[in-house]
What does this fold into?
Amino acid sequence: MHDSSIRKTAIPLVLTAVICTAMAAAGNVSDNPSGAETEFRNQFEPTKESERKPPGDAPEGMVWIPGGEFSMGCADPRNLPMGGGEPMRDARPIHRVKLDGFWMDKTPVTVEQYARFVEATGYVTVAERVPLPEDFPGVPEQLLVPGSIVFSPPPHGVRLDDYRQWWRYIPGANWRHPEGPGSRIEGRENEPVVHIAYEDAMAYAEWAGKRLPTEAEWEFAARGGLTGKPYVWGKELKPDGHWMANIWQGDFPENNTEDDGFAGIAPVAQFPPNGYGLYDMAGNIWEWCADWYRPDTYAIRAQEDRPSVNPAGPEDSWDPAEPGVAKRVQRGGSFLCTYQYCTRYMVGTRGKAEHTSSGNHVGFRCVQDP
It folds into this structure.
């Protein structure tokens, strides 16, 4: 199960972040991996890229995504090697989508880039603001302090059905202080900016003359022209034994062996780009998309007998796990994802988060219309 929220009853404030919970069992390893991969792949029709050429030179730090028609969604990955234990039901049915071309940031927005925005505008992020009493009825005033969610690994193994074992609300945690008041961003300018709520990402995008990608645009771009592959780089998690993204190795959540070279957030572009020249479309940080989250979005689209054209997502949010909590889509997984607990670094899978939430594994990248 993927639950994207930490409730206020568990910590001083009700803040929600993308948290993969209740995956107590390790992911399945298929007895017939080649057969499982074939079955997975056969649920996708070929990607048809548009032949439209880039409309001029690329904006700084961006690449052209040609658009076209593709199969959007994720087949049940549980029989794939290291496919995890989640069926990914909200990523089905797999359906056809047609998109216009667009420019996309090569990497997530970095600390350096966000700092320039804040310096130019004086913007204050959600995590830096004092929470309003009317937004948190019943919470004692002394607990209404600025802060955000920080991954805090336990010293020993724990059950994976209680995220409070490894997540903490840290007063003073924000994009300037990623792990809390004692941490700094000096020397980390090339890392993705984190502790970013949806409106923080939107504010930056508007200032930069860009926008957030739709969920469909994000997935098309992440696939890099490939059809029906479980990863943005292809069919194997570790081609030729090489890690291709910053995700978790070892026993989650107490022991990260750092086999990929990183214990936490990595600087951007430390792993090979995908087919469109995009970096970090899997792992490292979750990225906000423009769409509201609903688990039935794809089922509604699939009722049409033609491809959905430039879908912008539903008009409202609904999550049966937390009725009444408005959530936006996030994509890509983070450095905390692992087949033991959360395999949402697999392309086509979906994340979700309450739109005012933030954490030290949440950031974004932008797109721009031609």
